[in-house]
Design brief:
mainly alpha
Amino acid sequence: MCVSGAWSHSDDGAEQVDLLPEISKAPAMLSTYANALDKHPLFKAELDSYLRGRPNAVFLADLPAHLFLTSAGDIAAAGTRVNVPLINALVLYVASAAIAHNPQGPSKPPSAGGVSLDLFMKLSRDLETEARYLFLNALANQLRFPNAHTHFFSSSILALFQAAHDTEAAHDKEVVREQITRVLIERLIVYKPHPWGLLITFIELIKNPAYDLARHDFVRSSPEIEQL
């Protein structure tokens, strides 16, 4: 897969995924999915402006800080400083915007790229370990049945794995890749039957030489992952 998000492993199975009629259709969602965003109207307004393609370096720089709770009571109740409902709402909101403004048209599956990928890259690079893990889980939560969201989030995860991060040290790249792999592996080990989107994404990581999952040290040092 290239960073723009098109599946591309050597057999043509991934290309066949793009031809599924369901893969360009957005799934039904609860009308309340963005409630956590609605509680932060200024942040949401800035996000809307950013997603419409209006450059805003300040918004992107400040983005990670918006995803943490500030009230001691809220932190105690949640058991974490991370605002998990806001992260979950954010990733779905970004996906919905990407699908609504898909440059390939409504008949084509949306792929990661442009401002949505820049936003996800910022979070995967700058969030602290716990927050990044919860952010990656929010992406993986949407790896479900064939639909536009599954395609978008799968291509986003693969793009983050491949690109993480061209301007960073090798160690920092491996930290992000290891966390992505951990999030997927935890679901493959624990939950059965496995969602279609989860399997498609993990198979792509294994089979596509662009990712070459098996060569990474964190895989070779884990017998459990190698057995998969």
